[in-house]
Specification:
This protein is mainly alpha-helical and 207 residues long. The protein has one domain: Arc Repressor Mutant, subunit A (Orthogonal Bundle). It is built from 9 helices and 4 strands, in the order H-H-H-H-E-E-H-H-H-H-E-E-H. The strands form 2 sheets. It has a two-stranded antiparallel ribbon. Strands 3-4 form a two-stranded antiparallel ribbon. Helix 6 packs across helix 8. The longest helix is centred in the last third of the chain and has 31 residues. The radius of gyration is 18 Å and the shape is elongated.
């Protein structure tokens, strides 16, 4: 697995889209998913359609009284659940708790900010903000700000800063392993669903 994950499309980096999709998978309808998430039905529809449009394929069999995952939807569901559990486990490791699988998926959407996580992973891999910035195509200032904001959100220092570079703390190293897994799982959705769908267009593009 690479030290830094490829950049995700906005449909995969947006947890609202993924959580809406997973709720529809679980409850089998937009209305029940909407009630569970306490979000308007229109917002759930937009999230599901945004994910389908981004991947270039339908993810559900739409029936009069139910929405059932098709083959592509099953892939997305499996990978998305793994990603959220991996990220949640990383948060549990930072807090020193041993959460249940369900609890590990209950973190706030705001914590999963792809830009900050990419900045964090790039510095964790290279130890230098300038090198990290060049690796992911942003400015060094964006790197330092992203990591500062992430540390503030987590209320945990992830690096020690020195003249010889930045060194991940023990907490930072543990968190990096979980974040790497989460981003890898989301990237694999594109590999397994988006790329084949765009080549064959089987299943229909909902956009």
């Amino acid at each position: 697995m690479p030290a830094t994950a490829p950049k995700l499309g906005p449909y995969l980096a947006n947890l609202r889209h993924l959580r809406a999709f997973l709720a529809v998978c679980e409850f089998g309808s937009i209305e029940r998913a909407s009630n569970h998430l306490a979000r308007p039905k229109s917002a759930v529809v937009q999230s599901v359609q945004g994910l389908e449009c981004g991947l270039g394929t339908a993810l559900f069999e739409r029936r009069p009284r139910a929405m059932l995952c098709n083959a592509h939807g099953a892939v997305v569901r499996r990978r998305a659940e793994r990603a959220l559990r991996a990220f949640g486990a990383g948060l549990d490791a930072l807090s020193g708790t041993d959460g249940t699988p369900d609890a590990s998926m209950a973190f706030p959407n705001s914590l999963f900010h792809e830009g900050r996580l990419q900045a964090f992973m790039a510095v964790a891999a290279g130890g230098d903000p300038r090198t990290a910035a060049a690796a992911i195509g942003v400015t060094p200032l964006a790197i330092t700000r992203g990591i500062h904001d992430l540390e503030r959100s987590l209320d945990t220092p992830l690096f020690t800063r020195g003249v010889d570079g930045w060194v991940a703390t023990g907490a930072g190293q543990s968190f990096a392993a979980h974040v790497r897994r989460a981003l890898f799982e989301l990237h694999q959705i594109g590999v397994e669903v988006e790329q084949p769908a765009r080549r064959s267009r089987e299943g229909g593009n909902p956009c």
